[in-house]
Design a protein that fits this description.
Pfam families: DapB_C, DapB_N. It comes from Fulvivirga lutea. InterPro entries: DapB_C, DapB_N, DHDPR_bac, NAD(P)-bd_dom_sf. It catalyses: (S)-2,3,4,5-tetrahydrodipicolinate + NAD(+) + H2O = (2S,4S)-4-hydroxy-2,3,4,5-tetrahydrodipicolinate + NADH + H(+); (S)-2,3,4,5-tetrahydrodipicolinate + NADP(+) + H2O = (2S,4S)-4-hydroxy-2,3,4,5-tetrahydrodipicolinate + NADPH + H(+). Keywords: Amino-acid biosynthesis, Diaminopimelate biosynthesis, Lysine biosynthesis, NAD, NADP, Oxidoreductase. This protein is α/β, with parallel strands linked by helices and 241 residues long. 35% of the residues lie in helices and 24% in strands. It has 7 helices and 11 strands. The strands form 2 sheets. The chain has a 6-stranded parallel β-sheet with strand order 2-1-3-4-5-11, with helices on both faces. A 5-stranded mixed β-sheet has the order 7-8-6-9-10. α1 packs across α6, α2 packs parallel to α3 and α4 runs parallel beside α5. Bound molecules: NADPH dihydro-nicotinamide-adenine-dinucleotide phosphate and the ligand O=C(O)C1=N[C@H](C(=O)O)C[C@H](O)C1. NADPH dihydro-nicotinamide-adenine-dinucleotide phosphate (NDP) binds next to α1.
């Protein structure tokens, strides 16, 4: 596969190493310094773009790919208020757009476990849910995209209505975002009562799981069109419920 990397930071470099190991070719690398190159990019030899950039640049990058029919998968967090726009554009243009807040298979199993636990706890009103995420100090957004997906999973299966970094009420899941080094990504869901606590935690030991997931999705995406997500990918792998 010929891959265009949009964003060549910690994740872009990790993805490059794994993609080359799997015999793919990196045909272009776009970062902040050469961002304007994307608007003149000749996509003839590009099978897929992998976009891990920054909250402020993701929308423009994805808009370019979708408008120019370059199949694209993105992992950038902190820009999702505009995701619907990209999805609408993808349908209009007949292009391919895949998004996941977390590409790690382990985290996606954890997402399923989180929903199962939320369903189980939904009748146990003496327990109060909360989420804690820990990431490295270079991270630009808070809370993490993964923490937001976890909160959405709980909201789907319970009476919680929203999440917040500050606000406290019975209808809101509080999220605590901790920044310390080194921390590739740790997420904990806690149900606390006066009598006891129940906790589940996923700890990433490195960025390898995120990068491997992104490369596997890029390979899977080859014959696909439309708006796709991890649910579609995991269904094909038979690891969803
Ligand atoms: N979904 C998932 O599984 C995961 C998602 N992430 C998310 O991915 C994103 C990237 O993470 P990470 O690699 O750690 O971050 P880094 O800060 O290490 O890298 C960001 C990269 O984006 C580049 N960039 C900045 N502006 C633009 C632009 N306009 N066009 C193209 N590239 C640009 C930067 O360029 P320069 O080097 O010149 O500054 C840099 O290379 C974050 O949003 C993070 O939350 C991270 C891990 C897993
Ligand atoms: O910025 C990171 O590093 C990560 N970002 C993603 C997120 O915001 O959830 C995924 C992972 O936790 C690492």
């Amino acid at each position: 596969m010929d891959i265009l990397l949009i964003g060549y930071g910690k994740m872009g470099k990790e993805i490059e190493a794994l993609a080359v190991e799997r015999n793919h070719t990196i045909v272009g690398k776009i970062s902040k310094t050469n961002a304007s190159d994307l608007s003149n990019y000749n996509s003839t030899n590009t099978d897929v773009a992998i976009e891990f950039s920054e909250p402020d640049s993701a929308f423009k990058n994805l808009q370019y790919c979708v408008n120019n029919n370059i199949p694209v998968l993105s992992g950038t967090t902190g820009w999702l208020d505009k995701k619907k726009e990209i999805e609408t554009l993808t349908k209009e243009k007949g292009s391919t757009f895949f998004y996941a807040s977390n590409y790690s298979i382990g985290v996606n199993l954890f997402f399923q476990l989180n929903k199962q636990l939320a369903e189980l706890m939904s009748t146990q009103k003496q327990y109060k849910a909360s989420i804690k995420e820990i990431h490295h100090t270079q991270k630009k957004d808070a809370p993490s995209g993964t923490a937001i997906t976890l909160a959405e999973g709980i909201i789907e299966k319970s009476d919680y209505k929203n999440w917040s970094l500050e606000e406290k009420s019975n209808e809101i899941i509080p999220i605590e975002a901790v920044r310390e080094d080194p921390a590739p990504g740790t997420h904990t869901i806690k149900y606390a009562s006066e009598i006891d606590d129940i906790e589940i935690t996923h700890t990433a030991h490195s960025r390898k799981g995120f990068a491997m997931g992104a490369v596997l999705v890029a390979e899977w995406l080859q014959d696909k069109k439309g708006v796709l997500s991890m649910a579609d990918f995991l269904k094909d792998l038979k690891i969803n419920n």
